[in-house]
Amino acid sequence: MKDARLLLMALVAATCLMVFTGCTDAVTTQPSDVAGEALTSGYEPTADLIIPSDIYDGSVENEVRVKENPRDFRDKNDDRRPRFLHGPFDRLLRALKLTEEQKGQVGEFLAAHKECVGAAMQVLRDHVSTIMEEANQARAEVIEKLRAGEITREEARAAIREINQRAREALKNSDVIARVREMLKACDEEFIEKLKGILTPEQLEILQRWLDHRGSGDPTGPTDGRRG
Description:
Layout: H1 2-28, H2 34-40, H3 46-50, E1 54-56, E2 65-67, H4 90-96, H5 100-147, H6 153-173, H7 175-196, H8 201-213
Antiparallel strand pairs: 1-2
Helix pairs in contact: 2-4, 2-8, 5-6, 5-7
């Protein structure tokens, strides 16, 4: 009798596992609506993805360092990503279902976009480097005074806090960084205009819906690729 109960329990468990697995497969293998995802995800401009906006505070022990933007798409493993997918345009390009010919053309557009972004980023790197160098030079002078006994450790910490704040404000309010943002915005707009020139009317409609939603990040928008 005991063996019969054990056998029955095993059969029930096996049946539940089969049902659960089947249900799981049914969920995970359903094709996702990529167009809907692209249109409701919101568009993050290249500038928002790669321009740093804050610093790691300097201290008596450590120098001031710039914080990289955690959404910087350049940090992704590009070797695992199709060549025609790129940063802020990934979801859009998947939604467009590009032909092989279009993928080749888009690859050229993305190469030009990368070059455009690279030029702007060089301006940014040079400027941010200057801000960090000035902050750390000021910090070094404070440390020198501390070691010479001219100021106390508390006075050094207070002085370095002021240096941190100046560096943070310089990074936040820089005219150069504002100009770089405009340069990166122009890179994105140039890519989009080139893309428009090779799309079919149906693809242009998808692109337009994506443009309508960019920057919104509204999760309540249409989820099936159609207007609500």
